[in-house]
């Protein structure tokens, strides 16, 4: 069973509908026992980094998520959820993240529209089980901040938006996708399915 972590800031409906179409069992929850009993975790997110960390803390989920990931439970962060996996963010101040991956979240700074919104080409940078039997293609982004990962080997896919933007990160059982796989057509659904099947 997959636990979609509900802390009041995720796009839960479209994500749950995607998992339902893929025929994967899931539950939307903020219950600590349910999260511990789940086989895999998804951390969605829409909104500001600091607000998200505050909401996770209010629900006493911050340490739990970190502990479950350290123990090896597969964890997928989506959009803001991916950014929360990292060390810190400068969105409207300085905020510490979950620090499961090393790096900072910074505002996009380029002569293109911000937020970065729409379909962009996903380029695979490093071989990874998540990409098994898949081909590169377009996925759907909506974000104004992006991840600057400390370890380049953690960045397994990028997109070009005036510069290389981190699109997928992976280290062992921890995965992050800056785009919305549930809104990204066939490729997005395939990536979500690969995670749900344990191909990480």
What portion of residues belong to β-strands?
A: 25-35%
Morphology: globular
CATH fold title: Rossmann fold
Q: What low-confidence regions span 5 or more consecutive residues with pLDDT below 50?
A: none
The major pleated sheet works out as:
9 strands, mixed
Side-by-side strand order of the widest sheet: 2-1-3-4-13-12-11-8-9
Number of domains: 1
Tell me what the CATH architecture is: 3-Layer(aba) Sandwich
Distance between the termini: 16 Å
Structural class of the secondary elements? Answer: alpha/beta
Query: Quick one: CATH superfamily?
Result: Class I glutamine amidotransferase (GATase) domain
Would you give an account of this structure?
- By secondary structure, the chain is an alpha/beta fold.
- It has a single domain (2-91, 102-196), classed as 3-Layer(aba) Sandwich (Rossmann fold).
- 26% of the residues lie in helices and 32% in strands.
- The protein contains six helices and 13 strands.
- The chain has a nine-stranded mixed sheet with strand order 2-1-3-4-13-12-11-8-9.
- α1 links the parallel β1 (2-5) and β2 (26-29).
- The longest helix is centred in the C-terminal third of the chain and has 12 residues, at 185-196.
- It is globular.
- It starts with a strand and ends with a helix.
- The model has no long low-confidence stretch (mean pLDDT 97).
